[in-house]
Amino acid sequence: MISQAGRKRRRRSNRCGFTLIELALVAAIILSLIALSTPLFRKTISYLALQDASFNISKLISYAQERAVIDSNKNYKIALYIKNKQYRFVEYYTEQETKKIIERPIQGRYGKLYRLPKGVTFVPPDTEIKTERSDLFFYPDGHCTKAAVNLFDAQGGHYRISIKGFGGLVEVKEIEGE
């Protein structure tokens, strides 16, 4: 009798697994799919950043309108720093002696200096910036400056945020092919 311990194990000739060529082929397919989809993802991310920035500015404008009516003895404005791609909600008043306008940021989260997302600007890409700053004014009687804020991205996206004046409805509109 031959014991089980003395028996040699036979190797299987047909192995389970992948060859190097198969792995390289799958890697090449995956890399080509990534290369084809990257521009699409980049455009989508840029579009979402533009959409988010326009939403945030429109909500800040609505808040400024409400705050101006509630605090009936104060004037407010949103200062748009065009060149720096920033904006801020501030309270302002005119000093009686010098007739100089004094600005003070609002306390809390709405008074911080906001920055537009990367790739989003107030002016179209490759356009010379003519003004450093623009302001949107809000008054205690419920009216505000009639204005439009334009936002652009590098991919050609464009949103316009419009304020209609008295009791101003804030309108956000995507502008196609301008």
Number of strands: 9
Classify the beta-strand content into a percent band.
25-35%
Highest CATH level, the class: Alpha Beta
Largest sheet: 5 strands, antiparallel
Write down the Rg.
30 Å
How far apart are the first and last residues' alpha carbons, in Å?
92 Å
CATH homologous superfamily, by name? Answer: minor pseudopilin epsh domain
What is the mean predicted local confidence, pLDDT?
Answer: 85
User: How do the SSEs run, as a string of H and E?
Assistant: HEEEEEEEEE
Low-confidence stretches: none
Gross CATH architecture: 3-Layer(bab) Sandwich
Overall helicity: 25-40%
SS element count, helices: 1
What does the model show?
With 178 residues, the protein is an alpha+beta fold. The chain has a single domain, classed as minor pseudopilin epsh domain (minor pseudopilin epsh fold). Helix content is 29%, strand content 28%. The chain has one helix and nine strands. The strands form two sheets. Strands 1, 2, 3, 4 and 6 form a five-stranded antiparallel beta sheet that branches. A four-stranded antiparallel beta sheet has the order 5-7-8-9, covered by helices on one side. A hairpin with a 6-residue loop joins β8 and β9. The protein is elongated, with a radius of gyration of 30 Å.
Task: Pick out its properties.
9 strands; 5-stranded antiparallel beta sheet; 28% strand; alpha+beta; minor pseudopilin epsh fold; 4-stranded antiparallel beta sheet; 178 residues
Q: Quick recap of the structure?
A:
With 178 residues, the chain is of the alpha+beta class. The protein is built from one helix and nine strands, in the order αβββββββββ.
